[in-house]
Structures are given as structure tokens and as C-alpha cells.
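PROTEIN–LIGAND DATA SHEET

This sheet pairs a single protein chain with one bound small molecule, LQZ7MJT6, given as SMILES. Inputs appear in the order they were entered. The predicted three-dimensional arrangement of chain and ligand is reported afterwards as a C-alpha cell string under its own label.
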Amino acid sequence: MDGREQDEAQSKYSFEDCQATADWLLSQTAVRPLVGIVCGSGLGGLADALKDQVAFNYRDIPNFPQSTVHGHAGRLVFGTLKGRPCVCMQGRFHLYEGYPIQKITMPMRIFKLLGVETVILTNAAGGLNQDYKVGDIMIIKDHLNMPGFAGNNPLAGPNDERHVYVCLFRFGVRFPCMSDAYDRELQQLAFDVGSELGFSDFLREGVYCVLGGPSFETIAECRMLHKLGADAVGMSTVHEVIVARHCGMRVFALSLITNKAVMDYDSEEKANHEEVLQTGKQRAEQLERLVSTIVTRLEHNNNFA
Ligand SMILES: O=P(O)(O)O[C@@H]1C[C@H](O)[C@@H](CO)O1
Ligand SMILES: Nc1nc2[nH]cnc2c(=O)[nH]1
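PREDICTION REPORTED AS:
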């Protein structure tokens, strides 16, 4: 996209558009969520854990994109997790679906306007770290934003300063900090909860690298990403994190290691989406317990970036 196209894309998802969508949702449900959850590939079962659900198909929500990927149901579910009001995206959007980056991250701004304070994101990822096993859950402590290196950042384009000054920092500043993108207290909380639940054997922490997809990586690419410091590779999350932090929400993110990245020319293994969904099913119950227990321990947050 050139600069003009980027400006156009950005203006299509303006504050007013997001506000209209948020107002529509708030008029349809009495739930006032403080926690927003994004389910990764094959991890949509998390949404089923919500009680007293009010659910919307993405196609029925004004201005909302549509899910096109198998394993992403395309529903926005409001409800409570152990009494805590939540909203859960059962299906997310990816760059490779052909959407502008501003569109795939728009739900983060909707979360903000709904009153969400803490965002919990999950994804399926390939393990680059040689100590990782399929089924491990990696607490994301940092990221490598490869599309961002090439100028594809969800915050590119005009920054609506009006809202910075007039609307109580609803969106955010021109140059947001990302060295504190992943909340350290929440990472510690996740380790504590994981240990109480007996999950320590498969709980890790590491660096997630986002690529555009949809092709999986070559062997040379996996080797390079590992050398650059990535522990896991995927096709999502980072863009959402940037927008969530831009508008001042606290962020916690998890990768389920659904497959081992192929690093060796002698290997017969081949990354495939069926394996990704299958591993999601196998770890679904533990992931759900981990996330719902973390949610019950969250404190109120006013951490504006
Ligand atoms: O939405 P996530 O990041 O969990 O989805 C990953 C990346 C691709 O969409 C898909 C590949 O199997 O899983
Ligand atoms: N890019 C990428 N995304 C994934 N999502 C799940 N596994 C993988 C993988 O190996 N590579």
C-alpha cells in the first residue's frame, strides 16, 4: 500500500466508525466487559466457557470484518467467566485474508470503547526454540514484528490527535512505546496460576515473531528467525497488541505451540493447518482453565500507555 492508500484505509476505521460499532453492541447487551479475549486457530472453545452468553455473528455487527479461516468461528461472545464480565472474539482476522492491517486490528479499538481494560490474546504458533515441544504453552514476553519492518504497521497513517487531547486518550499517541507491550505482572500471574494448576511442565516464556503468511516458513527462514531471537512463529497477535497498547489496554498473550518449525533438511515433517487445529483440541481444556483462572485474579487496571 502506498501512503495515500494507507491514509484511506485508516480513515475507513475512524474513531466515529468504531464508536458506532461499540454503541450498537452496547445497545444489544447488558454485559459491560472489563476483559477482552481473542481466540487463536482452533482455540475458540475458550468462548464456550463464558456463562450467560450473548453472542453475535460477525456478519451481523456493523462495520465488522468477516472470519474466513477454518478454526475461526466468527462470533463475538459476551458473558462472564467466573463472574467477571468478558467479551471474546471466537475467531480473528489475519493479514493473509487480504484485509488492510487497520481492519484486522479494529476490534481492539472496539474493545477499548466497550470499556475493556485487559486484553488476553491466544494464538497457534510453530516452535522455533529447540527445547519446545508440541503442546507447550508459551507466555509471550516480547515480539518481532516482521511486517512492521517493511512499513506495515497498524498505526501507520494519520494519528487522530483530536482524540488524544479531547477524548481522554481513547486511542493514543503518535509514537507509542512497545518495550512494555506485554504486561510483566500478568506474565508472573500466569506462571503462578500455571504452577497451581500443575501446568509448569508445559509452560514456557518466549519471543513471538509474526509473519504475513499464509505460506508456512522455509527451513532457511526458520533458521534465520531462530537466530534473530524468536522462540515461536505465527501469523497474528502482534498487530492487535500494538493497537491495544496504543489505546492503553493492558496486554497478556499466549502461544500454543501446535507444531515444531522444520529446521532440518533431513526432516520429513511438514507444517499443516490440520495439525495446528488438532493440537488446539488436545490442549483446549488446560488453556481454558489457565485463562479463566487468570481472569478471576485480575485487578482493575488504569494503565494508560
Ligand atoms: O490466529 P492464529 O494466529 O492462532 O492462527 C495461526 C496462524 C494461521 O492463521 C494458522 C496456521 O495454521 O494458525
Ligand atoms: N507462520 C506460522 N504460523 C503458524 N501457526 C501455527 N503454526 C505455525 C507455523 O509453523 N508457522
